[in-house]
Design a protein that fits this description.
By secondary structure, this protein is an alpha/beta fold. It is built from 12 helices and 8 strands.
Length: 280
């Protein structure tokens, strides 16, 4: 991996298809697994991953149906399938109790993997996570309810929709090159279908209904980071989630929207580094 690129140079085939991944940092350093959300990819973790790799072995991956990982018709990309994929990857990597850092949908993925599929973590950091019902921005809910209709949009209108949707995740606005990188996977023929598939398979609330009542059972250190200007999942949800998880620490990151990794990478990486070093 070069400084200027983000290349997932390894692969693993699990129950949901081929997953592209890579690892940064010394092989004998404490392991940290980063989990992205939707409609993103591991690319959003590039700055924190490279910084944390100075002290940790950092594992990054694109969820099935996202980024560089396999996209195909009929692919299971619901959040429980993603949770199984995470548990399978931990087994492939032979990681027994890594630290896990998860953003957006990755929050529900990591919580389901831990609470329902036996994935053990040493500690868990959640960044603007999907965790509490009701969830889903107004745009997401509209797309979920009418995915078949939106799938019929002409190519230029689909492209405009994806551009606008992704741009709304940032409070100060994404850099043009970053915006282009996040949009690109969804503009291919396979990506266009995958974009609507991952929305229609994840009807808001279903993926958290069966775990939300178990947050009080979480028995590990938990850090919750939240962008103060998040318009996708309001910061009030961060306060609510922190009250439900015993001993959880809440960090509000000023000036950041939903995609905190891009809006405030230094502040987020500092908070994550302090939290992860405590258990290293």
């Amino acid at each position: 991996m070069t400084v200027g690129d983000w290349n997932l140079d390894r692969s693993f085939t699990g129950s949901s298809g081929e997953i592209r991944w890579t690892a940064l940092g010394a092989v004998d350093a404490p392991p940290v697994v980063l989990v992205h959300g939707t409609p993103f990819s591991s690319y959003v973790w590039r700055a924190p991953a490279r910084a944390l790799a100075g002290r940790f072995r950092v594992y990054v991956w694109d969820l099935p149906g996202y980024g560089a990982s396999e996209m195909r018709a009929g692919q299971p990309v619901d959040l429980d399938s993603q949770a199984r994929a995470l548990a399978e990857l931990l087994g492939h990597w032979r990681l027994e109790r890594p630290a896990v850092v998860a953003h957006d949908f990755g929050g529900a993925v990591s919580l389901r993997a831990h609470l329902l599929h036996g994935a053990a973590y040493s500690r868990l950091a959640l960044v603007d996570p999907v965790a509490l019902a009701p969830w889903g921005s107004p745009t997401y809910r509209l797309l979920a309810e009418h995915a078949d209709v939106f799938r019929q949009l002409p190519g230029d209108l689909h492209e405009a929709l994806v551009h606008r949707y992704i741009s709304s995740c940032s409070h100060p606005g994404l850099r043009p090159d970053t915006h282009a990188r996040l949009v690109a996977p969804w503009l291919t023929a396979a990506g266009r279908d995958a974009f609507y598939r991952q929305i229609e398979q994840n009807v808001p609330c279903e993926a958290t209904d069966d775990i939300q009542g178990r947050y009080g059972d979480l028995d590990l250190p938990v850090l919750i980071c939240w962008g103060a200007e998040d318009t996708w999942i309001p910061v009030a949800r961060g306060h609510e989630l922190a009250r439900l998880i015993p001993g959880a620490e809440l960090r509000i990151i000023e000036g950041a929207g939903h995609l905190v990794q891009e809006d405030a990478p230094a502040e987020l990486t500092l908070a994550l580094g302090e939290f992860l070093r405590t258990g290293a």
